[in-house]
Amino acid sequence: MSSITTHVLDISLGRPAAGVPVGLEIRAGTEWNSLGRGETDGDGRITTLLAASHKLAPGTYRLTFDTSSYYLRTNKSPVFYPQVQVTFDIADATQHYHIPLLLSPYGYSTYRGS
User: Fold this and answer.
1) pTM, 2 dp
2) pLDDT of residue 100
3) DSSP type of residue 91
4) Residue 69: which CATH number?
5) End-to-end CA distance of the chain, in Å?
6) Domain count of the chain?
7) Would you place residue 72 in the very low, low, confident or very high pLDDT band (cuts 50, 70, 90)?
8) Which string of DSSP letters, residue by residue, matches 32-64?
9) How many CB atoms lie within 10 A of CB 75?
10) What is the average pLDDT across 29-52?
């Protein structure tokens, strides 16, 4: 399993959000470098953004959720937030970081999960 994982729940439907494209990046100076991409599975999870052998480094990371394509597929268009970006800092690179996203067409919430 990746050391950074995510889980997307569509709270407007009360179920996992399957098929949400997600990208993971790390900041290097003023640039963002891609580390991985994926799409949420039937349970709304991505556990393979990074290879299991990938060693995290302290730094600033960003998850980008393509909510627009998800809502177009589920006929919930138009959507107010076509993209959600969650930026977070990792100080202790030995830990696992789980970043859930609670999603609806007109709002979202995120937190550090376990």
Assistant:
1) 0.94
2) 98
3) S
4) 2.60.40.180
5) 14
6) 1
7) confident
8) EEEEEEEE--TTSEE--SS-TTPPP-SEEEEEE
9) 6
10) 95
